[in-house]
Design a protein that fits this description.
ProC C-terminal domain-like fold; single chain; about 270 residues; alpha/beta
Amino acid sequence: MGKFTGNIAILGSGNIGLSLAKGLVKADYVKANQISLTRRNINKLNDFASHGYFISKDNAAVVASADIIVLAVLPQQLNQLMEEIAPVIDISKHVVISVASGVSCGDIRNKLKEGLEVIRAMPNTAIAIGQSMTCVASDNASAEHIAEVTRMFETVGAVVKINEDLMTAATALCACGIAFFLRAIRAASQGGVEIGFHADEALKMAVQTAKGAADLLLQMQSHPEQEIDKVTSPKGCTIAGLNEMEHNGFSSSLIKGIKLSAIKAGELYTKG
């Protein structure tokens, strides 16, 4: 796998943008001096400057000297950012990656420049430890550029290419989904306290049990019900607990929560 030889501009360097920058350098995909980082409060980037990254407040100047541009601001801030950089966009050399929820490739081209290659990426906060589940989609990017962006995000986790019309759904399942699984772990630890464990013990036990469950599925490539069947015996304690949770809407509430999050994710951006 060859290194990337161009320059990358990450505009709006918050948690996602900075985690991507660190992942790219750690994986030796690029050197720090090939990455430019911008944000409104530039003092928060001083530590990155000391590690060789170029930091700036001037989005347009950074874009002008970049090959790949990552739009990593909130959807509500995206229109203003695109107004700033539109005059320096060059469709012959620029590829734009957007991590903003609910903003289509077409929306971005309308604000920047027709013919521009745009790729959407939806990582989650586990990007901070290189364990993101990132979905990528595009309506016009070349296979070569999609492969390049896939390589970028593989430095910080797993990547799946999907159709663009599923990107808001991916936001709910993967990005919002981190919080849903965290809440389930928190609830399990609270149950642990009620049955006799200290809070710190209960949390450690719940976290490791959840990690073991996820790794079982990843490594065995099995279905959850297959693994559940191995734990449930006739008239046993596991099936009793599972059925009690289901009677109280465990699966149903998770499904309904994901559906509502998908609706909300599609409403975050105003095209105006």
